[in-house]
Every structure is written in C-alpha cells, then in structure tokens.
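Deviations from the work plan: none for this task. Representative record:
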Amino acid sequence: MQELENDNHRAVEFIDDHRLLAGPGSQTGGPSFVALIDTEKTVGGAPVQTLFQFSQYFHGIRHPSVLLERGVHKPSPAESLAPFHQDPTQRIIAVNIPFSSVGYLVFRLEALLRIAEGLEGCEIEWDGWKGCMVVPFISRPDRTQTWVSGSRLFSVTSSCDGLYFRMEVYDFSTQGRRKYLSGKVDTDIGEVKSLLPTGVKAQLPRVFGGLIDTNGGHDSAVIVHVSGLLFSRIMKLNDMSCVVAQLPDDSGTDEGVLDMWTF
Amino acid sequence: MAFILAKTLLPSSNWGNGREHTGRESYPRELIPWNSYTQIDIHLRTLSSGGHHPAARRPSITYSRGSGKVYYTPSVSITSSRLAVLMVVRIVIWDWKSAQVLFVCQPFGARFDKQSSNIHAGT
C-alpha cells in the first residue's frame, strides 16, 4: 500500500483502559499494518508498539479501513446504560478491504492479544496471525454498510432490485463460530476461514435518497435516510435513545428520516 | 462518564460568519466531514449534563498541526483516563484529567518529523 497521503480512513481506538489499536497504515515502502500500542509499557520513554502486518496483497490497496466498536473502558455503575460491552475479549475488529474478493477481514481481539503475548514491541508478519482471520460471507461487500458490536458484525445491503435494504448479522463469538464457520475460501490473500450469517434478517424499506449512515449499540441499530443535501451526525447513547444532530436545509424541505430497530 | 466534543479549526480566512462555504453548499464547520484542518480543540464534557467534566483540570485540550494543509479528519478515542488523537501519522496520548501529554508516537511513516505541531491545554 502506498503512503496514505490525504487518507481519511485510518483510525485510533482504545481497546481497554490503556491499550489502543491504530491503523491501518504503513511505514515508507513497508507493508501495511495495524499497531497495538500499550501506554502502560514503555521502552525508552515511548509506549511499546506491536505491529501486525497484513498480507503483501494490501500493498496495492488504497483506503483499507478498520471498524472498531467505540467505548471500551470499564463502565462505572453510573453509566450502566452506555452501550459498552462488559467483556472486551469478545470484541471483534473488522478490516474493510475495498475492491477485493475478501471485502472484510474480521479477527477477535482476544486472539490478537494472545498472539501478542511475549511478542510486545515486535513486528508480527502476516503468516503469524492470519490464522485468526475470518471472512464474513457478505455477497456484495462493496455495497454494504457495516458496524461491529461486541462479537457481532452487522451489515446492511441494498437488495438486488433496489426496493429495500437487508440487514444481516454475523456472530463471531465462540458459539457463533462453532455454528456458522463454513470452512476455508480461496481469496486474494490466500485461504481464509469464512463465516455465514446467522440467518436473522431484517428487511428495511427503502426511501428516496438512500442510506446515509448506520450505527449500532448492544442490540440495536440506528439507520438514517436523508433525502436532502444534508450531512447528519448521530450520537448513540444507549439501546433506546439516540441524538441526531442534523442541519436544517436552507430551503426548509428537510426530509430526514430516522429509523431505529431493536433486536 | 466523559465524552469529547471535538471542533476543528480551519484557516482563518474560512471563519467568516460561522459557516463554511465551499462553493456548493453552506453548513456549520462542525459538520464538515473533512477539510484542511490545522487545529483540533477537544472539549471534555460530562455525558450527563454536557458541562465541563469535573475530573478534567482543564476544560479543553488543543492540538495544532501548525501551518499547511492537512486533508484529514482526526481520529479521537477516549477512555477512563487516556485520550488519544491520531492526525495523519502522529498519535498524541494525553492524561485528559491532568491535561498532560503522556506520549507522542508515530507508527506510520515519518513525514511529520519536518513539521511543527503545538499541543496545549485550554484554560
């Protein structure tokens, strides 16, 4: 992958109170990687950085992006309604690889941390961690919006006839992998395990203007359709409420629509 | 619980009447998905009231990229004591309660070695 000049897809996210994942990115001329940074362990005054390199295939891809669930710190009793998962080891991380046969690569945080044990500060090559990668079987990943919540990946895809959206769920928990792993598939990056959706589907009506944004919490999703030329921002507070900051259209024809589903 | 309200500072010529004009539409700066940001102001607020977080010694933290254009939306993450901002290739990590910079690291590339940046806490 080229140096990410003007790239807008790299993210940083804490995975617990003191460790964060950043990426994907690369050093000049080197392979792409995600960096696990531990702010409680330092070497020479700098936090220990463990680099997980991606396949060489990533060299030619622009704009891979990482999907991480936000909000990972240990919640206090006062914030019991906040959409944070109590068990961070169940969390998954998805890497979107646009315009590839893979679409998304998903790995469990717990597996990543286990591989990193004893190798902190090292560069871990693709062969050393590709075994924990799973590809969700998404039929049209290039036309899908996704988000992660705990051990699940949610996807919203437009139907072939364009009349509705279909939401599907991929369960990467131990139980889900036992049930839905479907063997290995041959991809651009070699053989990778694949995971089928759970079969739980929600059919959502399509509105003019299309799908603008999706977001999810523990067991719910917020999906926004906006028909005007607007930007919208969503703040998800808990399972039952949300705040949408939306700029009124100057013409007064604001037709923003907010839908929320609870699973 | 703390949440962060991040605002980005555009070059001074863009400030005008508080709305950003790109020649196509006009909308508040805060809603612009990306632009030539030079500075990010991070406001530390409580989720319950939206007011300044009582555990934060300073109400805001500012990270300035110095001069030049950066076509990038910074990525921000917060936890119970740490705050991280990723701006292109550089990650700055604060103890947001004391507003102290803990680390500045740069796992990606080396382009920023030649450029200046300023980090300070608001008053």
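Helices of chain A lie at 109-116, 126-129, 174-180.
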